[in-house]
Amino acid sequence: MALKALAGTVVFRLAIAGFVWVYVASVEGLYDLGREKLNLRSFYDDSMLGLRPLGALSLQLSYVYFLGVTFGALGVLTSPNPSDLRILGLVLASAVLGIVFFFFPLQSVHRLMVEAKQRELSSFRSELRRLRSRPDSTTEERRVVAELRDALTLDMIRAEIAAIPTWPVDTTIMGKLATVVIAVVGLVVAQIIQVQLGIA
How far apart are CA 11 and CA 102, in angstroms? Predict the structure, then answer.
């Protein structure tokens, strides 16, 4: 019976080690990919400059990671000894580490997106200066029409540039991930508080 329990423990630990290894290797691969020379699309074609797949991949990896952390937290909380602060601290640290691992491989992509947004803003300001210094049209009517057209065009371009995100992830999906993280951290913190107060 003891041999069977030992075998089960070994298999479980190997499974956890395999999960961690695959996850870390995937995050490292995504980090290396983000550091490659990427051809960004125009923000007129794609608000995320063609980098959405990298953000989606990082998000999927985070979902898998936090699913594992959630199962680990539930396993600890339903175990015969859910008051072991070292294990609870490990689960909490794993949740925090998951947030770091989500943003870490996207740092270079984030920097690219910020630079692209700054370039577009600089181009926009140059165009604005050019239009302001343009000589007036021969007639008042043509001048008013031209100014109105330019103002509307520039206002649309300004709105497009302002909408360029600096992270390649949809905010609605980020909200769902944040909900999962907050739930896991909340459960573990509540358990730690109960242990400290002697309730658990």
Answer: 28
Structure tokens at 169: 């992830």
In the numeric block, which tokens belong to residue 149?
């057209």
Does the pTM exceed 0.70?
no
Band of the pLDDT at 1, cuts 50, 70, 90? Answer: low
Cite the DSSP H helix spans in 104-170. 107-132, 140-162
Phi/psi at 80 (nearest 5 deg)? -60, -25
Residue with the larger pLDDT of the pair 191 and 113: 113
pLDDT tens-digit map of 126-153:
877 776 676 655 676 676 667 777 777 7
What single letter denotes the amino acid at residue 85?
A: L
- What 38-46 contacts at long range (C-beta under 8 Å, 24+ apart), as own/partner pairs, is 38/109, 38/112, 40/112, 40/116, 43/116, 43/120, 43/160, 43/161, 43/164, 44/160
Query: In the numeric block, which tokens belong to residue 123?
Result: 């181009």
What does the alpha-carbon distance between residue 94 and residue 19 come to, in Å, rounded to a whole number?
A: 13
In the chain, the amino acid numbered 102 is: F
Query: What's the rounded Cα separation, in Å, for the pair 161 and 75?
Result: 47
Q: Tell me, what DSSP letter sits at residue 164? A: -
